[in-house]
């Protein structure tokens, strides 16, 4: 099996007239990984994916998928499954007919029954698309994207409109695909999904990356927080604690375990109860909120 990256983007620029949607973007997606491409609205995610998927030409730069230009649709497209934010299925086709059509268009082989079973739409096989609920349409979108077990799958907001059980079933199916060797590119506004599922994340803002790496690498860019309140008459807290407007104290730290232990030791030595004590590691949404202050990656 080739060790070359499935997706290789080098110095990608996408412009619309004078507007620069993507500027000097470079990244790779390795075989078998789940890569999350995240960003603020208008960050350039859609333009980037349109180029990688072969729907749009780059203004400049080089993009390779399986070592080929994504514009070579005859070579690349049969190996790629795409779940868009909104389906373009004919409302008059049935669920089964929609899946068969995708099979013919992609040239991949599979069975309608298997794919319907993955997304729990077997009972809806002869139902017209127009009669499906929003959640059922999303499950159909996913079914057509994974028809034939493609090597590379793009999931654009895959769980929007799904209930908890359907979300769990979708992610179970994604893990099975990964176990079979599929590579997944995810975009989502549900940051907890990216934090739980992604091997690596590219975080875009104003057309370029602000951060790229594993969840651990991204969350290490910001301090964790310890917060607590002191009873009346308590001695002054440790020097690292800063008073906040609500009367409590906060410690920002890049070494949560060490600083929390020091605080607890101080409280024990001074017989002080730490009211409302909380110690929260940095989360991906913290990194996302701080994106405006992060410099672009060179």
TrEMBL record:
- Extract the InterPro entries matched here: AAA+_ATPase, ABC_transporter-like_ATP-bd, ABC_transporter-like_CS, ABC_transporter_ATP-binding, P-loop_NTPase
Q: How does it sit in the membrane?
A: Peripheral membrane protein
Read off the Gene3D superfamilies from this record: P-loop containing nucleotide triphosphate hydrolases
Which residue intervals define the domain ABC transporter in the entry? 7-231
The GO terms describing molecular function are: ATP binding
User: What UniProt keywords are attached to this protein's entry?
Assistant: Antibiotic resistance, ATP-binding, Nucleotide-binding, Transport
Q: Name one Pfam family in it.
A: ABC_tran
Q: Which domain of life is it from?
A: Bacteria
- Where does it reside? Cell membrane
What is the annotated signal peptide range for this record? none
Name assigned to this protein: ABC transporter ATP-binding protein
Q: Which organism is it from?
A: Myceligenerans salitolerans
